[in-house]
Structures are given as structure tokens and as C-alpha cells.
Write a structure and sequence with these properties.
The complex is a heterodimer of chains A (about 160) and B (about 170). Chain A has about 160 residues and is an all-alpha fold. Chain A contains eight helices and no strands. Chain A is elongated, with a radius of gyration of 20 Å. In chain B, α3 packs parallel to α6 and α5 packs parallel to α7. Chain B is globular, with a radius of gyration of 21 Å. Classes of the chains: A mainly alpha (about 160), B mainly alpha (about 170). Chains A and B meet through α1, α2, α5, α6 and α7 of A and α2, α3, α6, α7 and α8 of B.
């Protein structure tokens, strides 16, 4: 993630360096807008990352894996989606975890729902999403997105 | 005017309630198990440090987009006039962007304020569950039928989901 971030930052900095030659005023204004939007969000970002640590320590991957592998059928599909929805982390962290679930005998649709929800549904970040977009949007997107993730998981089970 | 300090505190609580809640949770965690709470704090700090550069880069992009990209262009590409092409472009953007989804919320909202439709915002976030550049890694861990099947279904469902949520958003605001 650090490397990816560095590459992104270099790309964006290059863009700024090129644009500053084209229009100095506009580029400095961009930098101001960037700084202002970041400053406004810092308390929220600190809160979200604080949650990440709490969840990783108080909810171990082993527990996650046990809950999903032990139960069967539709309940595990729902549990898979729900676990993905409450956890946050980079997609890269979801793949090894999902792989170990499959190896442990978890149902593939449940694992698919887990991966999809892990990346695109966020219960912990829901307050943040609501403050950026609106409560109505955050609830609709996460609610419908969750149901769609379960449907995709089920269809994948049919395909495999 | 004596109510002014009181309301200032109220505003602070209302705007920062999540941060206050997390601080509360840490105090509780520290009470239950000091070592675990410190470990959680360390993980949080490490995670934040690992995506710090990415966050800085994304906000740099937010600034550029807001100042350089005209409202007209966004409306044309990602607004109603963009049609199917705009929706497909959104799906492609979603699969290519990296980093936790919540990092791009502000970026998407600024695009929305500049005229991008709700369907576009939603499609980007739905297609986000597929990472084109990471598919080789996913295949490594989950096998190719699982990975390709999941990726295909996710992208196929992103556009109808986006249109559904858009129509619900535009129905009489609450």
C-alpha cells in the first residue's frame, strides 16, 4: 500500500508540476482546495483508522474464519456478507483471508459475499459516508449493495 | 448571548461525534485490557501511516479536478447527457481506482456536485469490489473460476444497481 501510495503521489505531483507551468494561479488554487478539503476531514479519518485497529485486535481473523466455516448454507452466506461489511481493510488483505476460508471448507458463495462486502460495503465508515453524501444515500447504497452482494454470491455458486 | 458558548460545544459534539465515540471505545478497551488497546492503537497508526501518501495523493487529485475540470465537461461525460458511455466509464473507473473505498467518497461527492449523476457515483463504488490490477493476486489465492466469475458478476450488477439507487435518490427527497 505504501508503494502504491508513493506511485500515486509521484503521478499527482508530476501533474501539479506540469500544470504550474501552464497556469500558476489555477495550480496554486488547486493546492489550496486540496489542503482545505483534507484539513476538514482529518478528525473523521483519525476516527475511522482508530476503528480499524480496535476491530483487528478485538475480532481476530481466526474468529472470522471459524464463524464462517462452521455454519452452513444461507446462514453462512449472510454471515459472510455481514463480516465483510463490518471489516475494513485493503482488498489485498481480503484475498488471503478469503483463501484460507475456502481452504477451511467455507461455502464459495459466502466467501464471494465476504470479499465484495469487504471492499465496497462499510458499516464502520457509514457515518463518514453519510456525512459526505447524505444519510439517505449511505443507507440506500449499503443496504442495496449488501443484498446485491448476496445475490452475486448465490449466482457464483450456481456458476461454479 | 449567554447561550453562545453552550451552542459552540454542541456544534463540536455534533460535528465530531464519531471521533468522540472512538475515543470512548478506546477508553473502554483500555479499561478491559490495556495491552490490547495499545496494540489496537498501534495497528491504527500503522494503517494510517501506510495509506497516508495515498490520502495525500487523492486529495491532490480532488484539488486538481475541482479547479481544472469544468462543470460542463463532467456533466457531458458523467451526467445524464453522457448516457451509457458515462455509465461504462464509471464502471471502468471503479475497477481501476485503488485504496479503501472511503478515501474516494469526498472525490465522488465533489464530482457529483459538479454535475455527475448519482448512478455514476454508485457504479464507481459498486465496481470498486473488482480490482483489475489485482486480479492475478486474487486468482493466486482463490482460483480463476472463482475470481473471474466474481469479477464479471460484480461489474455486470454495478450498472443496474447504480440506476436503481439513482431512481430511489431522485424520488421525493426526505
Amino acid at each position: 500500500m505504501f508503494k502504491v501510495g508513493l506511485i500515486y503521489l509521484i503521478m499527482i505531483s508530476t501533474a501539479y508540476l506540469i500544470l504550474v507551468r501552464i497556469d500558476r494561479g489555477k495550480t496554486l488554487l488547486s493546492l489550496q482546495v486540496a489542503g482545505r478539503s483534507l484539513r476538514k476531514l482529518i478528525p473523521l479519518l483519525i476516527a475511522v483508522f482508530g476503528m480499524v485497529g480496535l476491530f483487528q485486535v478485538f475480532l481476530s481473523p481466526q474468529q472470522v474464519e471459524q464463524a464462517l466455516g462452521a455454519s452452513n448454507g444461507w446462514i453462512s452466506l449472510f454471515i459472510g456478507g455481514a463480516l465483510g461489511a463490518v471489516s475494513i481493510g485493503p482488498p489485498l488483505a481480503a484475498y488471503p483471508l478469503a483463501g484460507s476460508m475456502l481452504d477451511a471448507g467455507a461455502w464459495p458463495p459466502a466467501v464471494a459475499a465476504f470479499v465484495i462486502c469487504w471492499i465496497s460495503i462499510g458499516i464502520i465508515t457509514l457515518p463518514f459516508e453519510a456525512s459526505v453524501f447524505s444519510l439517505r444515500y449511505a443507507l440506500l447504497r449499503n443496504g442495496i449493495g449488501f443484498v446485491i452482494a448476496l445475490i452475486i454470491g448465490t449466482l457464483l455458486g450456481v456458476l461454479l | 448571548m449567554s447561550s453562545r458558548p453552550k451552542s459552540a460545544i454542541w456544534v463540536a459534539i455534533r460535528s465530531q461525534w464519531l471521533l468522540l465515540m472512538v475515543i470512548g471505545l478506546y477508553l473502554w478497551a483500555y479499561n478491559v485490557s490495556p495491552e490490547k488497546a495499545i496494540q489496537a492503537l498501534q495497528i491504527s497508526a500503522n494503517t494510517l501511516a501506510s495509506v497516508m501518501l495515498l490520502i495525500a495523493a487523492v486529495f491532490g487529485l480532488v484539488g486538481l479536478l475541482q479547479v481544472w475540470i469544468s462543470r460542463d465537461l463532467i456533466v457531458r461525460l458523467l451526467g445524464r447527457e453522457g448516457g451509457v458511455k458515462g455509465l461504462l466509464l464509471a464502471a471502468l473507473c471503479g475497477t481501476l481506482l485503488i485504496g479503501p473505498a472511503y478515501i474516494i467518497f469526498p472525490l465522488l461527492m465533489s464530482i457529483h456536485k459538479q454535475g455527475a449523476r448519482w448512478a455514476v457515483v454508485t457504479i464507481v463504488l459498486s465496481a470498486y469490489a473488482v480490482k483489475l490490477q489485482m486480479i492475478p493476486i486474487e486468482i493466486e489465492f482463490l482460483g480463476w473460476p472463482f475470481s473471474l466469475g466474481r469479477s464479471f458478476l460484480t461489474v455486470a450488477f454495478a450498472i443496474p444497481t447504480g440506476l436503481l439507487i439513482e431512481s430511489l435518490m431522485e424520488r421525493r427527497k426526505l
